[in-house]
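agent> fetching stored inputs for the iron/sulfur cluster docking request
agent> found them:
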Amino acid sequence: MERYSVITEKNRREIVLLRAFPCAWGKCTFCDYIEDNGRDEEEMVRQNREVLSRVTGEYGVLEAINSGSCFELPRATLEDIREIVDEKKIDRLIFESHWIYRKRLDEMREFFGIPVTYKIGVETFDYDFREKVLNKHADFRRPEEVAALFDSICLMVGIEGQTKDMIRNDISAMKKYFKHGTVNVFNNNSTPIRRDEELVRWFMEEYRWLLDDPDVEVLYEITDFGVG
Ligand code: SF4
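agent> prediction call returned; pasting tokens
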């Protein structure tokens, strides 16, 4: 598994995939990457330290992801990141957080003392699809509620049961309310959720222009950021 990468195209940055305690929610129906979660704190901290030692600070921006939210990273790893931020003159961090931690976002900003851009896995703004099919446990109703707290969203497209209208609505909300977005094209994994090939083909054609949008990253493969 690759845990360090440098993104040299849109939004230049270094990215690390760290290990953390189990995702506090852990029940999204499409997710099997929580298998990377662990409970052996010492081992996770050691592994994370190794990955973090590769950070050079070349773009001044570091994105740290884990299979869950940044609030599930071991404390010692957060301290290691803080040391690297200082040493390598990193001036912005990018973290992921689930909706359940929305009231804690400033904790990380205070801890690191630099701007933190938060990404949230919205998956879709269609409430029923998000909550009943994907079981995301993120009970917002309108994009404005999310935009009041998060700078960047992740959408998921190409799942059976999703419609073109849902996707149109999601992309237009992303462009209207958020500075930055990531669109993940769903790939079949070990969960029962299935990819809708026809919908993916339609999306890739209809939204080809997103590939040239500097504020949107489209991940056709889950490993497109070079980690995973
Ligand atoms: S919140 Fe994220 S990591 Fe946790 S189960 Fe859902 S998709 Fe997986």
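agent> quick read of the result: The radius of gyration is 17 Å.
agent> awaiting further instructions
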